[in-house]
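User: C-alpha cells for both sequences below?

Assistant:
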Amino acid sequence: MVQSCFNEEYRPQFHFTPENNWMNDPNGLVYHDGVYHMFYQYNPNGNTWGYMSWGHAISTDLVHWKHLPIALECEVDSNGNVMEMFFSGSAVVDVNNTSGLAVSIGKDRNGKDIFSQPMVAIYTSTYPTAHTTSNGHVIRQGQQSQSIAFSNDNGLTWTKYNGNPIIPSPPPDYADQYNQFRDPFVFWHTPTLKWIMVLTLAMKQIILIYSSKNLKDWTLESQFGPYNARFGEWECPSLFPLYVDDNTAAEKWIILIGINPGGVIAGSGTQSIIGSFDGKTFVADPSEVYDPAKVPCGSTVFQDFEATSSTFEDLGWTGTGDFVGSGPRKASTVNGGKVKGYLGNGIMTTYLFGNIGTGTIASPKFTIRKDYISFLIAGGYYPYNPATAGTPEDNQVSITLVVDGKVVHSQTGTNTETLVWRSWNVAGWIGQEAYLIITDVNTGPSAHIHIDEIVFSDIPKDEANWNDFGPDYYAAATYNGLPTSERTVIGWMNNWAYANSIPTSTWRSAMSIPRKLALKTIDNKVRLVQQPVSSLSTLYTSSLYSRNFSVLECGETKVNVPAPYNTRMKVALKFTRGAGIKFGVILCSNASNTQETVIGYDFLGQNIFVDRFKSGNSSFVDSEQNAFPGYFIATMPTKSTDVIELNILLDWSSVEVFDGKGQVAITSQIFPLDHGAADVKLFSEGGSTRSVSVSIHGINSVWK
C-alpha cells in the first residue's frame, strides 16, 4: 500500500479522508471516554466500491483524526469468494453490560471483578455467496441480515458475536425484501430502558423500529413510511431527540433518511422529518409531511395537461422542431408505463420518439401575480447552462422561466421517471410578464422531460425537508454518547451518481465537516438547523481580509488572499439588498474566468446558490449523462431590509455553504484544473449591494 503524504491533488486539508482506498458512509459514530470514534465503509483492496469493511479513526476534537487498523474486514474464502461484507450500521457503548459481552479487566480493593464496558457494533451482514453458517443459519445469495460485533479494548480489536445474525430476515410481510434490509442505527432509550433500532426496507421506503433489552434479541415494534421523498432507496436512517430552542421541556424527535437515487439534485440526498417517539412508534408532525397529490391552498392551475386529445397549439403553447403539432399524452402510455407520480391522466412529455426528439415547447405569456410557481417534473439530468445555451454545445433538457428576455429560473430532471414537486420563488418579479419554455436538445440516455400540474401559489409546494440542498451530502449519521444538546452529524461528501469516478488518487471520498444539530423556531416553524462544530475554529488563521462596504458597487472586486489559504479558507459574508439582483463571492478563479466557483444570494429568486458549471474538471464521468455540472439553489426568502449571512468553507476539492441561522446548507465537490490560479472576488450583479461585511480566515491543514 502506498503511504499517503496527504498533499496529493484534491486531497482535502481539513476534511476527513482515508489514508488510501475507497470510503463511503460514516458508520458507528460513538463518543466514549473523551474520544470520538468514526467507523466508515471502506474497501481495503482498492479505490472504488467493493469488499466492504469498516475502517476506523479516532479524534479528541472532531478535527484532527488518527487512523487506526481496520475494525471489521470483509471475509473471503480460500477460493476468493466473498462470504460476508460489513455494510453500514452504528455503535454503542453498553455501559450496563446488558449484552453480557463484558470481560473482567481487574479487581477492586475488595477483590471483586471490575468489568469492561463493551463497545458493540451493529451492522448489516451482506452475503454475496450462498452458504450455511457455522451456527446453522442458511444464507441465501445476496441476503442482508443484522449482526453485532464487540470490543472490550475501546474499539481496537473486535470479535463477531457467535449468534449472528441477530435479525436474519425482515418481517414475514416483507420476506421478499431479504436482500434490501439494512443499515441499523441503535441507541439506548432511557424512558423504556431498552435499546432501539431503526433500519430500512430500502426499496419499500419503509423504516422498521425494533427494541431489545440485550442487543441480541429484538422485537419488531412498528414501521414508518413512506413519506415525502419516497422513491429510490431509503438508506442509513438515524432517530434522535433534540430540544426546541434549547428548552429541555420541549423535546422533539428527528428521523434522518438517505435517499438514492431521488436526492434534491440527482443521485443521492438526505431528508429529515420532525415528530415524536414513545419508545415504540415514531409519529411525524403533520406540518412535516407533504402529500404529493395536493397542491397548495389557493393555487391557480396554469396548466394540468389533461387535454390529451389537443395539441399544444390548441392550448396556447408553441412547439418547435419535433414537437410541432404534438400535445399532452396519457401518462400511462409514456415510456412503457414507467412514468409515476403524475396527477390526473395527462402530462407534457418530450418522450415522443424515445429520446431522439428535439425542440422546444413554450407557454403563452402570463403576468406573475403569486410568489411561487410549482410543478411536477421527471426525466434525465441535463441542466440549463447559460454559457452553452443556444450554442452547438447546448445539451439541456429543462424547463426555464423567462422574464424580460432572460432565464431567471431553471430545472432539469433527477434521472428518474417518478415526477416530483419543484418550486421557484418568483416574488421578485411580481407584476412582470413571463413565460415558460421546455427545451430538449439532447438525444442521449434518458434525454427527455415530463412536466405536470403547473400551479401558481402564495406558498411553495414542498417535496421533502432536505437536510442539504447540494449534490454531495449523503448517509448522514449522528453520534451516540453525546448529550442531546450536543447532537453531531457527519455526512459522506459524495454522490452515487459519480462517486466511483471522481478524479482522486490514492484515496476516494471525504466526509463533510462535522455539524452540530439543533431545532430552532424560525418564521413560526420549528426547523432542523446545523452549523460546523465549534472546534473547527481552532484551525483558523488570524484574519487575512476584513472590510466593510457601506455600498459595494456593481461589478467584481478582487480580494487578495495569500497562498496557500486562497484554496482553503472560511469566508463570512453579511449584506443587505441594494439595487443589485445578486451578490456573492467567486472562488478558485483564473484570469480568463474560464474556471470559477460562484456562491451567493439571488435577491429576486430568493435563494442561496452554488454554481459549479465552471469549477474545473467534470469530464471524469464516463457518460454523456453527466450529473456533476450544475447550479444548485436553496430557497430562503428574505425581506429587503434583512441582513443576510453566508458562511463558506473552501477546501482543496469542496465548498460547504451555511446561512447565518443554519437553516440552509449546500455541499458541493469541486475539482479545479488550474491550480496556479485561485483568485477570490466579490461580485454585485445588476446594481449595488448595501452594508457588505467580509471576513476571511485561512484554515490550517490537519495533516501537518
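Moving on to the next sequence.
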Amino acid sequence: MEVEAVVGRTGSLPCDIEPDSHEDRVYMVLWFRHAGGKPLYSFDVRGRSFNKALHWSDPLAFGKRAYFVTMSRPSSLTVEAVQLDDEGIYRCRVDFKNSPTRNFQIKLNVIVPPHQLLLYDEAGRDVAGVVGPLEEGGNFTLLCELRGGRPQPTLSWLINNTPVDDHTILKNDGKIIISKIVISGAQRSWLNSTVRCQATNTALLSPHERSARVEMNLRPTSVSIIQKPGQMSADSEVTLVCVTHGSRPPAQVAWFRENRKYTRGKHSEYINDTSTVSKLTMLPQPEDDGTTIRCRADNPILRVALEDSFKMSVVYKPVVSMSLGSTLNPNDIKEGDDVYFECNIKSNPKEHRISWYHNDEQVSQNMSSGVFISTKSLVLQRVTRQDVGLYSCRAANQIGESTSQSVFLRVQYAPTCAQATPVVIGARLDESLRVRCTVSADPADVAFYWQFNNSGESFQVSPARYVSTGGTASELRYRAASERDYGALLCRASNAVGTQHKPCVFQIVPAARPSPPRNCTANRVAAKVDVILAVKCIAGYDGGLNQHFLLEAVGDTSKALANTTAGKIDLVVWLNISWSVLETLGEEEVLTVSARNNKGVSDPVLLKELVFKDAAKHTEETTQVIAKFPLAAAFAASAAIVTAAGAIIALIFKKRHESSSTSKRPCQSVVQVDAQGRRYLIAYPTPHTQEKQEIKPDILNPKHGEAEGPRVVLESSDNTSYIIREANPLPHSTCVSHTSHDDMVILLL
C-alpha cells in the first residue's frame, strides 16, 4: 500500500499485527527498509507481557523520531518530522507464536507543500488583501503565481466560495505556475466580496491560498431632508436632518444657503459604511426668508453628488433702520433749517404701526410746531437746539416690535448761558474773585468778551483780565476795590454761527455772613425703622454766598448732629436726627440751628422745651439764644423795642455826585439784591479814610481796609413792605449823614 506524509510533519506506516485466532499471540514485529536485511525498528514481546514489550529504533535510521503504536487499528509505525530521505518502500514483518510470519510492504511518499503563493494585479502590485477600489461597471485583472511544491500543485480561483472556471495559465515550467483571471462589469453587490487563489498537492493539508477583499467606490443613491418645516420663526432654534445612503466612502454632507455654504449654526454627523446623517441646528434670521437651503451629499472620490432642498419661510418682527435725509449734511445743520428722517423697514408679516421717538420720548405730529409725520418719514421744520438728540423709529407687526438704531441730530447754534443767570456773587471789598462763565454752543470753538455795568457806567473788560479755560468756558479775575465796583459783570461769546444774544450776568454784591434761619419747628416722627426728630426751618438771606445749615448740640462743647442745604425753590431746610441720639444728650446740652457760608456763621436759633424722655410732650418754638449768645440777644431786644414803639423812620441818604474831593462820605451805603424770589436791601458801613482817593470805574482799584458786616438787612417778597432780618449795633463813627433830596428813604416797620 501507499501512504503520504508531509515533510516536516508526522507520518504513519500501517502494519496489521492482529493474530488469526485468540489462542495465538505476537512474538515480534520488525521493520525493514526496501530490501535491506538489517531491521531499523523492532517490537519484542518474547518472554514478557504485551504491555511490556521492548521497543528499539536504529539510531542511524529513524532514531527517536519513530515509535510503534499498538493502540491504533491497524497498528502503525509513527515517524515524526518526516524528511525527504524518509521516502521509500518499507517492510513490516510480524512473527506469531503459532501462526506463520506475516509481511506487509508500504510505500511512503513524502509531500512538499507549495513554497510561495503571490496575488497581484496586472501592473505587478501586490493587492495586500484588498482589490480595488473599483467603480461600478469597472473591470479588474488578477494574477496568481505559485512557486515550489512536490508533487506539482494545482491552482484554482474562487469568488465568494464559487469556483471560477474561466482562468488562464500563463506559465507552468514545473517550478512556477502563473494563472490569470479577468473580471468585468463590477456591480455594487461585489462590495466586500472575497477573491481567492488556492494551490493544493495533498489532501493532508488545507489548500494554500491568497485572498483579497473587493473594495468599491460607490455613488450615493439617495439624499433627503427629513420633515421639511413649513414655517420658521426668526431666532427660534430649529433642527434640520439630512440623510444620505449608498455612498462609499461615506458621502460628505454640506449645507448651502442659495449658492453659498452655510456656516452658521451647529453641525453634527453620524456615519457608517454607506450612510451619513447630518443635523443642522440653526437660528433662522430675517434675511433667510424666501431663500433656498440645500443639503448636498458628495462622494469625495467620484465627485458625484446628490442634493435635496426647500425654500425657507421665516416670520420675524420688523427689521428697522433709520437715517438722516440723504440730501442733508449732518455736520451742517443750523437753527432754523428743515430736517427729515427716513425709516427703512423689512417685515414678515407686514408692519401695522410705525412710531417716532426723540430721546426715547414719542414724537407726535404737530403742524403748528413744524412736526410732520408721513408713512416712513419724519419732517422737522425750523429746528432749534431743543431738537438736538437721538432720534429713532419703531415698527410693529404680529410677531413683535423693533426699534431702529439711534441717529444723532446735531443742530449748530450761537452760544447761550450754560448756567442759570443772573448769578449772585458775594464779595468783600478788596477780595479777589475768579468768575467763571460757561456757555453752551455748537460748534464749541467760541470767543469771549466781558463787560462791567453799574448804575453809573458801563465799560469793556480788558482781555488781559480773563482767560479761556477750555472751549466753552472763560474765567475772569476780579476784585471789588470800592463800592463802585459792585455791579453786573456781563459775559458774551461768539462762534461760527453767531454771537450770543443774551449775556451771562454775574451780580457782584457785598458779601456777609448769612442771616439766621426762621420759623424753625421740631417734630417727633415715627419712621419705618426708627423714630426721628424732624427739624424744619426757612432759609434766611444767604449773604450773597452759598450757605448750608447745621443742627448742633451745644453744651460745654459743640457737637454737630445734622448738616444740609435748603431747597432751591421753597427755601425749606430739613434737619433729621435719630431720637436715640437725642436720648444720649445731657440735660445741660441744647439744640441749635445755624446757617453758614464762606464769610461766617449766623446767630444760632435755639430749639427749646423739647422733652426728649416724654413722647407725649413736644413743642416747637424758635427764639434767639440769649444767655450763651449776647450779640443775638441784643439784636432781639432792639427788634422788640422797635416793634413796641411803633414806626421808626431812618433816613439813609445816598449822594448822586461827589461835589469835591474834600467832601465827607456818607456813613453807610445801601445795596439792593434780588435773589431767590425776594428783594433784599442791605446797609453797609463805609470805610473811613483820612483823605479820599480818586475812585475810577475800574476793577483794579487799590486795596482798602477790611469792610465791616451789614448793619441792617431788610427782606421783602412784594417790593413794597420790608421786614428786618438782621441788625448790628451801630459803631461810633464820625461820618456825616446827608439829607439831600437825592437820598433814599427806607421805612422800618
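User: Anything stand out in the second?

Assistant: The chain has two helices and 60 strands.
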